[in-house]
Amino acid sequence: MNNQLTPEPAIMVKTGLAVQFRNVSVTFPETVGLEDVSLDVATGEFLAVIGPNGSGKTTLLRTILGLANPARGTVTVLGTHPAQARRHIGYVPQRTPFDPKFPVSVFDVALMGTYGALGILHAPDQRDKGRVMGLLEAVGLADVASHVAGHLSGGQQQRLLIARALAAQPQLLLLDEPTSGVDVASQKSIIELIRGLHDKLKLTTLLVTHDINEVMPCLDKVLYLNRRVYAFGTCQDVLNRETLEKLYQSPVLIVEQEGRPYVIVSDRHV
Amino acid sequence: MFDLLHYGFMQRALLGSFLVGTVCSFIGVYVVLRGMAFMGDGIAHASFGGVTLGFLLGINPLFTAIVFALGTAGLIQFAQRRARIRLDTAIGIFFSFTMALAILFIGLMRSYDARLYGYLFGNVLGMSSGNLVLTAALAVVVTAAIALLFKEFKFLAFDEEAARAAGLPTPLLSTLLLLLVALTIVVSIKAVGIILVASLLVAPAATAYQLTNRFGTMFFLSWLAGVVSCLSGMFISYWLNIPSGASIVLVATLLFALAAVFSPKRRPCKVCGAEIAK
Prior knowledge:
The complex is a heterodimer of chains A (270) and B (278). Chain A is of the alpha/beta class.
């Protein structure tokens, strides 16, 4: 699997960057999505994107996918235009529950991840199917592969979306609030799954969340977004008391719990 | 009964019913899963404008119906994307516009043409060889497109946004699907008539939907229901001397009712109903 996921060298030699934003603004008829955002994500990095609701986190991901177009600035993804890079991006959208009556199996949905790369007129072959089955095993859904996708629990549907994203053999993985609407036990195991996959595949990963503690302990880099870039840097640079107190504009306490740092902002968690 | 099969009109009606049942039930799967039933109704009524224009100008009404059906399908989508209005509003506007044109064209005819009746209510027993050839050609086009783009349409129907993010040309695919629906409707007008064709687009697929959780199986069951409805409806039309549109749709609806009553999906749904009731 590692080999198949290795990025094409030609693309990487150019910049060594998976994602590059230069002064990007995205505007919508009624609101501003992103304002003057610049950031670099190096190949293989794990970037946690944190910000309150409505802070443009989803817009950031849609811009990387070329589904939202910047009014100003330039976006380079995998060394090329976002729309061209799209086929090499695994996207886990913010979960909208599957239609429980739509007649597709869990395996069918995961297999859809291969369609973009296959192109029209090519059906997935045995190798693709074997690979997808392997991914379902990796996310812990192998034994429900033949079930109706819409009958899965929220946490299981989220794992299925991750498997579908990986089925595209992406060079970049984008996850939009992968734990929203999922019970606490599943939240933990989904985050562990994502971290484990990043470890194993060395896949550039952008994880969007509104809960800072979800990405603790922090892996590589953090972007704190509220339409503008409020803070962007390594974990040590951003996730210290001073920076966090500036961000939240209230006293912040960082405690150790079971060996993990935990951020508490003025008696409530963020 | 087998003597019947020696008649040319009966052979054409058999083949015509089979083709219409096949093509309607295939495309119907997407109509049901994407919720395009009202769109189907709108396009069917739009093609009536084309049929009446054909009569007025003295050219084959099916050709003008194709132009009207495709044109309206395109206009509805254009209006929806450009004017940012809801799909059902766009359909509502063009639906009545083309019906108004039809009534205008009928008014312009010097005398009422009785053959219009066949286009409104279906007359599969009166299918000419020319109509049959056109029906067969369009049926091949629609079936081939569905077969070649099977996985793309499946992804589109299930999750359009994700399909787009995966790099599929979703605007092109959804336009193409709409055009295929329009072609299917024109193909079926001769058998079921303009008033009832939308039912044949929905009923067989909805019947299959009651009985299976498998995408491929849904196609097969829909095809079975569509072909059974069309063939038996055609014979009933012959024996009772009623328009074939009525008999075909009555059989299709009966099959749906049976499937709904005996659906294995009903049982868990009773539970959801109880939960909501609480």
